Amino acid sequence: MPRETPFHERTRALCETYRWKDWSGYHAACSYGLSPDREYNAIRQGAAMIDVTPLFKYDISGPDAGAFLARLLVRDVRKLKPGRMSYLCWCDADGKVIDDGTCARLSEETYRLTSAAPAMHWLHRHARAFDVAIRDCSDSIAALALQGPTSRELLRQVCDADMDALRFFGLTETTFAGGGKGWLSRTGYTGDLGYELWVDNDNALGLYDALLDTGKDYGAVPVGLDALDISRVEAGFILRGIDYIGANDAMIDAQKSSPFELGLGWTVKLNREETFIGKDALTREKNSGSRWALVGLDIDWLALEALYAHHDLPTQVPHCAWRSGIPIYHDGRQVGRATSGSWSPMLKKNLALATVEQNAAAPGTELLIEWTVEWSREMVPATVIKTPFFDPERKRA
Q1: Backbone angles phi, psi at 78, to 5 degrees
Q2: Structure confidence at residue 317 (pLDDT)
Q3: Backbone region of residue 178 per phi and psi (left: phi > 0; alpha: psi in -120 to 50; beta: other values)
Q4: Under CATH, which architecture does the 291-393 domain have?
Q5: Closest by alpha carbon to 135, among 115, 101, 108, 111?
Q6: Which of 52, 40, 48 lies closest to 220, judged by CA?
Q7: Residue 203 DSSP label
Q8: Which residues 6+ apart lie within 8 Å of 384 measured at CB?
Q9: Of the candidates 373, 111, 97, 129, the residue with the CA atom closest to the CA atom of residue 240
């Protein structure tokens, strides 16, 4: 049975729908209201409070902490200065992605790694030759994402951090009103201006109450995973288990993906002397090219209207983001699959993320996506476009 996060005493009372899902063994609210619209609007126009405690969190410390993580990760995190963090991934020996997450440098000899799936076994498996200590703090640290254009001004009222000095992908130790000491990072999973707050479990409720109380003037509301899913599609962010299968979970090689195939090639740093797990395989792929590519799709709205009109129905799109494999075609044959998508309230477009063959991945390429109406499988045009679909200047400001 799923456990309760340290914020659950508050989120349970606020969740009017009683719609919860299991996220890594925790209760996670899908939607607090009957529709995700208000919560989505908080992400894009106010301040969204999202409980992200179920993320796995590992503190790696010791004289060899940097060298150890540089061996495991596709980036050399020794180049991070204390108070900086990076998004990245890690691979198996064949260069296939096991997971993606963030790595923060808390001090000279201490790093914090977050992941979507458990990583303790993987970390210990490769730690024998290094002088490091690995602590699983997943269950002892509560994490709350505060996302949206008013989030910075709200945080000025509830913490003592220098908000103007905290740059994109920076982090700082701070004291929160009602929440004691903790860490504040300039990160998030919405593609908007946003932060993530990390506190000990005992300080979680005090922090939540302070944000709710002060946040009334900043449009702060609790937000569930339905609205988060819409925003992450708009941002072009992939989701493990949906847009790719972790290499350790794949049943066959065809289910595995490399960073280059997932649009994460920019995180891979091959030009360093030291080796890292998967470097040789990734170097070969970089030189020879990848078979697959992750692309964004703009699904033709007029074609959808015509398709539904043919069945005497109004045009319909899911009110939440969808997560399913939908075939993609080009020149009369299947060339890939769409893995997640959503109607974008901000852009007024029907968007999807898809993995397709390289010869069908160029922006502007006209593809066909399968679309079912009244149990009849049809095709509608979808144009390859660059991601992120939504990329406001305030995200990095």
Answers
A1: -65, -20
A2: 86
A3: left
A4: Beta Barrel (2.40)
A5: 111
A6: 48
A7: G
A8: 295, 296, 297, 356, 360, 361, 362, 363, 364, 365, 367
A9: 97
Q: Kindly state the tokens that stand for 192.
A: 């908007």
Residue type at 184 in one-letter notation: L
- Domain ranges in the chain are 8-55+139-223, 56-123+258-288, 291-393
pTM for the full predicted model: 0.96
Q: Residue 24: CB partners within 8 Å, gap ≥ 6?
A: 54, 55, 56, 116, 117
Give pLDDT, residue 218: 98
Q: Please give the Cα distance from 382 to 364 (Å, whole number).
A: 9
Which one is the CATH code of 56-123+258-288: 3.50.30.10, 1.25.40.10, 3.30.360.10, 3.30.70.1400?
3.30.70.1400
pLDDT tens digits along 128-173: 999 999 999 999 999 999 999 999 999 999 999 999 999 999 999 9
Q: Residue 326: which H helix or E strand, with range?
A: strand 322-330
Which residue, chain included where needed, has tokens 């144009």? 383
Classify 100 as helix, strand or coil: strand
Average pLDDT over residues 290-298: 98
Residue 131 CB partners (closer than 8 Å, separation 6+):
62, 63, 64
pLDDT tens digits for 179-190? 789 999 999 999
How is residue 315 written in tokens?
């045009």
Q: 388: cis peptide before it, omega within 30°?
A: yes
Q: How many CB atoms lie within 10 A of CB 165?
A: 9
Does the pLDDT of residue 224 top 80, yes or no?
A: yes
Residue 244 is given by DSSP the state B
Q: How much is the average pLDDT of 66-84? A: 98
Cα 53 to Cα 182: distance, rounded to the nearest angstrom:
14
SS (H, E, C) 3-59: ECCCCHHHHHHHCCCCEEEEECCEEEEEECCCCCHHHHHHHHHCEEEEECCCCEEEE
Residue carrying structure tokens 């977050």: 114
What is the CATH T-level fold of the domain 8-55+139-223, as seen in this structure? Gyrase A; domain 2 (3.30.1360)
Exposed/middle/buried for 392, CB within 10 Å: 0-12, 13-18, 19+?
middle
